[in-house]
Write a structure and sequence with these properties.
By secondary structure, the chain is mostly helical. Helix content is about 75%, strand content about 5%. It folds into two domains: about 70 residues; about 80 residues.
Length: about 150
C-alpha cells in the first residue's frame, strides 16, 4: 500500500505543478482584449484541452474507484445498484413521457430537432419526478416524526 501512496502523491504533485505552469503561461502570455469586439485569447484552447483532460481523469478515477469499492463490499454494492437501477427507470419513464416536437422560432430557424427535443424533455421530466420524490420523502419524514 505504501508504494501506491507514493505513486498517488507523485501523480498529484505532477498535475498540480503542470496546472501551475499552465496557469502562469496563460496569464503571462495572453493578451486580454476587453473591448466589445475583442478576440478570444489565442492560447485559451490549450487551457480548455487541459481542462478536458483533467475532467476525464477525474471521471475515470471516480468510476474506477467506485467499481473497486463495490467489488470489495458486495452487500453495499447491491444497494448502490438498486439505486442506479431506480434512477435508470426514472429516466426511462421521463423518456417515454417526452414529446418530440420540432421547435422553430419566428424566423423559421429550427431551435431544436425532434431528437434533441425529446432528450431535453426527458431530462426535465426526470428532474420533476426526482424533485417530487424528494419533496415526498421530506413530507413523509416530517409526518412520521409526528406519530413517534
Amino acid at each position: 500500500m505504501g508504494n501506491n501512496d507514493k505513486l498517488f502523491k507523485i501523480i498529484n504533485y505532477s498535475l498540480l505543478g503542470l496546472s501551475a505552469v499552465l496557469g502562469i503561461y496563460f496569464f503571462a502570455f495572453t493578451d486580454f482584449d476587453l473591448s466589445p469586439n475583442g478576440n478570444v485569447p489565442t492560447n485559451s484552447g490549450l487551457m480548455l484541452t487541459y481542462t478536458y483532460v483533467l475532467t476525464l481523469i477525474a471521471a475515470l478515477t471516480a468510476i474506477i474507484f467506485s467499481v473497486i469499492g463495490m467489488a470489495k463490499n458486495l452487500k453495499k454494492a447491491k444497494n448502490a445498484l438498486i439505486g442506479v437501477g431506480a434512477l435508470a427507470i426514472i429516466f426511462v419513464i421521463g423518456y417515454a413521457m417526452a414529446g418530440n416536437e420540432v421547435h422553430i422560432n419566428y424566423d423559421g430557424a429550427i431551435l431544436a430537432e425532434a431528437g434533441t427535443s425529446m432528450k431535453s424533455e426527458a431530462g426535465i421530466i426526470a428532474s420533476f419526478i426526482l424533485l417530487a420524490g424528494a419533496v415526498g420523502a421530506i413530507i413523509f419524514s416530517e409526518v412520521s416524526k409526528l406519530f413517534k
